[in-house]
Fold this sequence. Notes:
Radius of gyration: 23 Å
Mean pLDDT: 74
Shape: elongated
Amino acid sequence: MKRLPRALLTLLAVLTLCACGDKAQDGSNGENAAVAWDTLSFDKTMPLDYATQFSVSFAGDDYKRITIGRCVVDGWRDTVEDGIAIVKEAVMGLIKDDETKAMINQIMRLIARDQNGNLKASKVLQLDTLAEELHNERLNEGIAIIKESYIPNLSKTYIRAEWKDDNGVWRYVPLGMTEA
């Protein structure tokens, strides 16, 4: 039953955007235009496949675009604690002097949880990049366990409509009933 209002809002948003557009560059009004799959562009703002934002954008012209996507909340299996323990063990073995202790503190901040008790996938990616430079087998093993424990939880679906102003800045088109 929740899908019907979402579908209606999506249809309304798409129709609103289509109705607001000017004539196409070829002089037509766009009534005979069709969207081809090869014209869709994907949002690749996240560095790795498992940390994507699960969104797709359609840019009809150089100055309008619609993005439909799903927000992702980081989730973890229980095995993440095993990976964190291995990383801590491997890192403590690297301490030799005050300089390495400062580096270890930086690594420990990357596997620390935020104020809500959540481990951030973006910090795990930073830790993975740092660990590649250290060439420590045990550290890489712990990070691999943490990465395998990652479960992206899809939360809400969103639709975002944007247009590009004269300065080249993307501006949002308000789609909410309270914003219109």
